[in-house]
């Protein structure tokens, strides 16, 4: 395990690998952090206590008008620049990490805060039309499941 020099101002709620394990995404308060990392796996008995693994902040992405991110989804199985976040303000925000910014906000996605977002990552057991990768689902306690299309945001 290793830790970067950065201290987080709030509890880290979600963390996952991103972009085929090239980065780490984690949520802290109303923003998510994109981190790069390098794990040093060399063995040296004389320097075994010296930490040579590195974790660096690439960029912070704040979610608009919310107190806390309640859910985050990003595909790690293939190259995708899209990161979806949901906040305590019941909104869903779409980020394009290739452009480095938010591209859309959908207000009042559910009657309560979204507690899970699930993107279509495909399956090794079946083939899909390319358009199917634009689909994602959200769910909130007591409000069921909604299926969304990234192209129309409906």
From TrEMBL:
User: In which domain of life is the source organism classified?
Assistant: Eukaryota
Q: Which InterPro entries match?
A: WD40/YVTN_repeat-like_dom_sf, WD40_repeat_dom_sf, WDR27
Where does the chain cross the membrane? Answer: 17-39
Signal peptide residues are none
Is Secreted found in the keyword set? no
SUPFAM superfamilies per record: WD40 repeat-like
> Which keywords label this protein?
Membrane, Transmembrane, Transmembrane helix
The record's listing under PANTHER family reads: WD REPEAT-CONTAINING PROTEIN 27
Under which name does UniProt file this protein?
Answer: WD repeat-containing protein 27
**UniProt source species:** Aptenodytes forsteri (Emperor penguin)
